[in-house]
Design a protein that fits this description.
heterodimer; A: 519 residues; alpha/beta; Glutaconate Coenzyme A-transferase; 2 domains; ten-stranded mixed β-sheet; 14 helices; 29 strands; 25% helix; B: 100 residues; alpha+beta; Ribosomal Protein S5, domain 2; four-stranded mixed β-sheet; 3 helices
């Protein structure tokens, strides 16, 4: 057993996975990036269109034991993962490594079922919420290899370091021509940014574009280029644009969430970094959407405009762009139908590669230039460590998303959460699963007060700025005690030694592991 | 005191608890708990239930709780209500004054 610099106990090996503890050594960066991409030739043009998904699987030579990938830009409206997996099962292919950019709950696809029948035996994603995650935690489904959970920015790194070599990438697109130029921006069922799939298109051995709308050559705009695409398949429907929202884009009426959002906007406005040309990422939860609105009001009041807004984009950000408050909107993901359509209709609303958004191991990414990042969390502890994955009920509740990336990348990273949810305290002594290292979190904002992290690199500056604005922080310990007074002291959750998932950091080191819970 | 009839209180709203209480003549206290926070608060919830029963000198009862994350004070208030209804007595507010 080892202990990493965050105090989390880690085994040295899980299955065949060798654990490299967080904070132990720097990553080698002067290495040649890897790709599985094959050259191929199609000197005579023609069509790459095949009649069915099964035909594409055969043409790609998909075999048992290989690695397949998908993107999650359609979120819960995705219909492609289910169709492809059903075709794979039909062909009797099994023992696959399933490596989508994220696992979301899909109505036409049960990941747990495909693990139970052996079609899938390894999983690498940004989270595994839903039936499979819960079953892994309670031990009702067991896998020989741990699930590897990575933040968004770590996935392209893992691919380019050869840790995640993709055999076949299935890319759901809302429109494509017969030669594979394709996009998420036009067609019947748009998802907007395809940012998560760029790395797959560049790196997989075979790439299949799956669409429900074939357009004349050349497809314009094209996010995925013909040079990467092996085959094109037309299906009846790729997804439901109405379900790409992480939450409804309506402004919350919950006074608690509004209070938290208002406080975040006040903190941002108090910072010396809130000046002409600043940059921000607010995200897509209820608090985030309200926060975007309050931030917009602060910017108007102070006559300040932003150079860019980053990450998952909602219509609130598009409104700010239309009002001239944001010069460029860099979309790695579109969180509602209006934001999805905005890339096509507005020159300064750009679709960006997820690696360009968050991969720390490239020659540059947008997070390097981000001033303010607003983040959600399930739990935060008195060391400011953040849990994004597991709930106190012993269930898998979320995904890492870009949380750890944004926390480290942004100058001022702001974690927002209510101090309690029902009877569950969210400010705790020690998070159940550490996902974002506390040292990368600048402050925690709750309805009961703001706590600054004395170990954050910009602590002195932020404390001064808040003082000048008359904002009085409390300590994280005070918030934790208040939460405990409301809920009572929680009994510790007991676990076995069996590790079901490893939580990787941006550099591939392990911040924590998730063990089976004793119920 | 003895529970005379089945009583049911509370709701299944988040933050509330639905409690069903019924007679269990001569067989002591039996508690059945369903809760999302059972891992962390199952013990505390059971303790609150037993203490409320003891406060009314109830020695025999079956209690079923479907908890939706209710705070301790909510569980105790719902229990007191369930007991008063089950026994058929009004709640003695004066007693509350005495305790303060």
């Amino acid at each position: 057993m080892m202990v990493n610099s965050l105090g989390r106990e880690l085994p040295e090996k899980v299955g065949s996975y060798i654990v490299r503890p967080y904070g132990s050594e720097a990553v080698e960066t002067a290495v040649t990036v890897r790709t599985n991409r094959t050259a191929g030739t199609r000197s005579n043009g023609g069509s790459k269109l095949l009649g069915s998904i099964v035909a594409a699987l055969e043409a790609c030579g998909l075999q048992s034991g290989m690695t397949i990938s998908f993107h999650h830009s359609f979120r819960e409206g995705d219909l492609v993962v289910g169709q492809v997996m059903a075709a794979i099962r039909e062909l009797g292919i099994h023992d696959l490594r399933f490596a989508p950019s994220a696992v979301v709950n899909l109505s036409n696809f049960s990941l747990a079922e495909y693990v139970r029948d052996g079609t899938i035996t390894r999983i690498e994603a940004s989270g595994i919420r839903g039936e499979l995650g819960d079953s892994l935690i309670d031990g009702s489904i067991r896998m020989e290899e741990p699930a590897i959970l990575r933040p968004h920015g770590a996935r392209p790194r893992a691919i380019e370091m050869g840790e995640l070599a993709i055999d076949v990438a299935f890319i759901a697109v809302s429109a494509s021509d017969e030669y594979g130029n394709s996009t998420g921006q036009i067609g019947t069922n748009i998802c907007g940014s395809l940012g998560y799939s760029f790395i797959d298109a560049r790196s997989a051995r075979k790439v299949v574009a799956i669409t429900d709308t074939l357009v004349d050559y050349p497809c314009c705009p094209a996010s995925i280029s013909q040079q990467y695409v092996d085959y094109v398949v037309k299906v009846d429907k790729v997804g439901d644009s109405g379900k790409i929202g992480a939450g409804a884009a309506r402004l919350t009426k919950n006074p608690r969430d509004l209070t938290i959002a208002q406080r975040v906007a006040e903190i941002i406005a108090a910072s010396r970094r809130f000046q002409e040309g600043f940059s921000f990422q607010t995200g897509a939860g209820a608090i985030s959407i309200a926060c975007t609105k309050f931030l917009s009001e602060q910017m108007e009041r102070r006559g300040v405009t932003a150079s860019f807004a980053l990450g998952g984009i909602t219509s609130g950000i598009i409104d700010m762009y239309d009002a001239g408050q944001v010069r460029v909107v860099e979309c790695s993901q579109s969180f509602d139908a209006r934001a999805a359509g905005a890339i096509y209709s507005r020159p300064g609303v750009r679709e960006i590669d997820n690696a360009d958004y968050a991969n720390a191991y490239s020659k540059g990414n947008f997070l390097d230039h981000l001033n303010f990042g607003v983040l959600g969390a399930l739990e935060v502890d008195t060391d400011f460590n953040v849990n994004l994955l597991t709930g106190s009920s012993g269930r898998m509740m979320g995904g890492l998303g870009g949380g750890p990336d944004v926390a480290e990348g942004a100058d001022i990273s702001i974690v927002t959460l209510p101090i309690v949810r029902g009877r569950t305290p969210s400010v705790v002594r020690r998070v159940f699963t550490c996902c974002t290292p506390g040292e990368t979190v600048a402050c925690v904002v709750t309805q009961a007060g703001i706590a600054l992290n004395p170990h954050h690199r910009h602590y002195g500056e932020l404390r001064e700025d808040l003082e000048r604005a008359g904002i009085k922080p409390v300590t994280i310990q005070e918030l934790q005690q208040l939460a405990e007074e409301i809920t009572g002291v929680p009994e510790p959750i007991r676990t076995t030694d069996r590790v079901v998932a490893v939580v990787e950091y941006r550099d591939g080191s392990v911040v924590d592991v998730i063990r089976e819970t004793v119920f | 005191m003895e529970i005379k009839e089945t009583s049911m209180v509370g709701t299944l709203e988040l933050g509330d608890v639905e409690i069903t209480l019924w007679p269990n003549p001569g067989k002591g206290i039996e508690i059945e708990l369903e809760s999302d926070v059972k891992l962390q608060f199952g013990g505390a919830i059971e303790r609150a239930v037993r203490e409320e029963l003891a406060r009314f000198s109830i020695e025999n009862a079956c209690v079923r709780l479907v908890d939706k994350g209710a705070l301790d004070c909510v569980i105790r208030a719902r229990m007191a209500c369930a007991i008063c209804r089950g026994v058929g007595v009004p709640y003695d507010w004066a007693k509350e004054d005495g305790e303060k």
